[in-house]
Amino acid sequence: MHEVGIAQELCLAVEAAAAEHGLGRIDLIQLIIGHERLVCPEALQFAFDLLKPRPLMQEARLQIQGRPGYDLLIDQIEGEPCA
Amino acid sequence: MRVKLEQPVLQGNDAAARANRERFERHRLPVLNLISSPGAGKTTFLERWLAQTELRVGVIEGDLATSLDAERIAACGAQVVQINTHGACHLDATMVARALDHLDLDRLDCLVIENVGNLVCPAAFDLGESLRITLLSPTEGEDKPAKYPPSFRRADAVLLTKIDLLPYLGCDLDRLTGSIQALNPDVPILYVSAQTGEGMAEWSEWLRQRLSGGGST
User: Fold this and answer.
1) CB pair distance less than 8 Å for A78 and B2
2) A79 pairs with which residues across the strands?
3) Sequence-ordered list of residues with C-beta below 8 angstroms from that of B185, at least 6 positions apart, any chain
4) What pLDDT, on a 0 to 100 scale, did the predictor assign at position A1?
5) Among partner residues A5, A74, A76, which is closest to B2 by beta-carbon distance?
6) Residue A2 touches partner B, C-beta closer than 8 Å
7) Interface pTM, i.e. ipTM
8) A72-81/B2-8 β-pairing
9) N or C: which end of chain A has fewer CB within 10 A?
C-alpha cells in the first residue's frame, strides 16, 4: 500500500515546513494529487492519522484536490504559529 | 496562518534519489531498477544474465525478509547486498544509499537494484536509477498492465519473462503487448526465458545500445 510510504514522507515534509515557518500546530494540509498516482484518499488519510507526529499534527486533516497527471504536491498548510 | 508550499510530497526521497544519481555519475555507473510482482522471475533472470554477461554486475536485493535472493546472487560470484525492509513494500532512495556503502562501486560496470516484489508501490519511489525495467510473466494474465498502470507507464523497457511457458498458457500475447503499449507506446518489449536462455542475447544487446546512447529497440 503505497499510501503508507507517501504518508511517511508527507509527515516529514510538513514537519520541516512547520519548523521553517514557525508553526506550532498544523490544522490543514492541502494536497494536489494527480490521478495517475492511484492514491486512495481514504487510505492516505488513514495512514496519515496513524503516522502523524503529535502534538504538532494532532488535529491536522488532509484536503485532497485531484487532477489529471502525476503530481504529488503539498499545495498549502494552515496552522497556528508557535507560542 | 497559511503557508503556500507547492512542493513535492516526496521531496525527501527525491533529494536522496538525486544524491544517489550524482554518486552513480561520479562512478560512471549505470543503474537498473527492476520492478515486478512477486514471482515474475527477477532473481532467476539475474542469475541467468550473470552467468553469461562479461559486465561486472553488482546487485542490491530488496525483500521484506530473508537473504535468500542475495545468497543466490552471491553464488553467481557477484557483489550483492541484501536490504530487508521488515514491512515496507518498496525500496526508497535512502535505503539504497545505505546499501551502496557496502559495495565497491569502482569494481562494477553496472548495478542492478532488484526491488521488492510489488507492482504498485515501487513505481512511486525514485531510487536514482538510470533505467527502470518492469518484468511481467505471461502467467500473470494479459490484464495486469491495465490494472497496474504506473509500473508500465514509466518503464524504460518491459521484459516478458518465462516465455518458454507460452505453449502451455492461454495467454493472448497480442492483447498483453497491446495493453502495455496503450500505456507506454514506444516502450521496448523484450521476450526472455531464464530457463532456456531465449532472448538473453537480445536483452544484452539492447542494454549495451541503450547505455551507449544508441537506439532504444
Assistant:
1) yes
2) A26
3) none
4) 60
5) A76
6) yes
7) 0.92
8) antiparallel
9) C
